[in-house]
Write a structure and sequence with these properties.
5 helices; 107 residues; mainly alpha; flat
Length: 107
């Protein structure tokens, strides 16, 4: 479900001028889905939460964020800014499991 969500929100991002509202909305809805999935008592509710997260989650948010960055950066700085954006994403994917494991051990 993430591919149609990414395509749809990427298209919608091109049509909407104020992308901050879209970024905030997708981030909040994604956060809600991430709470619904582990805390749901029903298997069907959990699957629905996963499908909805696929539609509005990280892969739907990335095209909007890239478009937002492109709108607020001069074209001479695209390579540097997108490199930093990708670096931050990779850095978080490397450290997130260690931090989560540490917090799980402490608690």
């Amino acid at each position: 479900s993430s591919i149609p969500g990414a395509l749809f929100f990427g298209y919608l991002s091109d049509k909407i001028k104020n992308k901050k509202i879209m970024v905030f909305t997708l981030a909040v809805l994604g956060m809600i889905c991430q709470f619904i999935v582990p805390y749901s008592d029903s298997f069907s509710f959990m699957i629905a939460g996963l499908v909805v997260y696929g539609l509005i989650g990280k892969l739907a948010l990335d095209p909007v964020l890239i478009s937002f960055i492109a709108d607020h950066t001069s074209s001479a700085m695209y390579a540097r800014v997108f490199g930093i954006f990708n670096f931050a994403g990779m850095l978080s994917s490397i450290f997130a499991p260690y931090i989560t494991g540490y917090l799980a051990e402490v608690t």
